[in-house]
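Budget justification aside, the reviewers requested a transparent look at the raw inputs and outputs of the sequence design task funded under Objective 1. We therefore reproduce one unedited record. The lines immediately below are the structure tokens for a 200-residue chain.
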């Protein structure tokens, strides 16, 4: 209780002095407000940009999409995650391939001869290609971490792909799919619970 009385007295004295001292009185008010606000804490905020897709059409189909994200002076890290899965139909036994063709009329041996690819590009705020990956077969997840300096502004994630997919009574399943995820980590000075809230 005594601590609260001291703080109240300090604030009242600061207000009185600020009223009688003109512009010079703003200094004690500012100092009292900073004292009440507490020590700042630096927190990291992650914002993700995600383009994923699973092909479900037994005929080869095209897909393209793009999304933008912001790079500011406060960005401390840019993480690029890329994964591509293109099951090989030749891994399926001949008996299974014949069964699929008998039931659906689909010759999966010819599917692998059609165009199957995933082309991922990241353009920086200047329109320059910052990252590019072209895959025509499965690749293990790739993770790249980039740190400043990075051009400030609006960046673009672009994906162009072609693939196919089929599911036979949930016994045989082969779906081309991919994921391209960008994580932008920014540093923010936090004074209160309302500060540094990420946008979902």
């Amino acid at each position: 209780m005594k601590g609260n009385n001291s703080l109240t007295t300090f604030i009242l004295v600061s207000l009185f002095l600020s009223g009688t001292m003109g512009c010079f009185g703003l200094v004690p008010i500012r100092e009292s407000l900073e004292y009440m606000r507490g020590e700042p804490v630096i927190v990291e905020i992650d914002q993700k940009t995600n383009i994923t897709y699973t092909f479900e059409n037994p005929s080869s189909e095209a897909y393209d999409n793009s999304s933008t994200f912001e790079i500011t002076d406060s960005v401390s890290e840019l993480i690029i995650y890329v994964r591509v899965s293109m099951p090989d139909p030749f891994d399926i036994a001949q008996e299974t391939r014949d069964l699929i063709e008998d039931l659906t009329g689909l010759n999966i041996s010819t599917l692998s001869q059609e165009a199957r690819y995933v082309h991922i590009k990241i353009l920086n705020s200047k329109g320059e290609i910052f990252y590019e990956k072209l895959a025509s077969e499965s690749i293990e997840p790739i993770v790249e971490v980039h740190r400043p300096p990075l051009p400030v502004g609006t960046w673009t994630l672009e994906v162009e792909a072609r693939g196919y997919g089929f599911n036979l009574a949930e016994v045989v399943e082969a779906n081309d799919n991919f994921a391209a995820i960008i994580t932008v980590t920014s540093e923010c000075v936090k004074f209160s619970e309302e500060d540094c809230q990420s946008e979902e």
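The longest strand covers residues 41-54. Strands lie at 41-54, 61-71, 75-85, 117-123, 129-135, 139-146, 153-163, 165-168, 172-175, 177-190. Computational costs for records of this kind are itemized in the attached budget.
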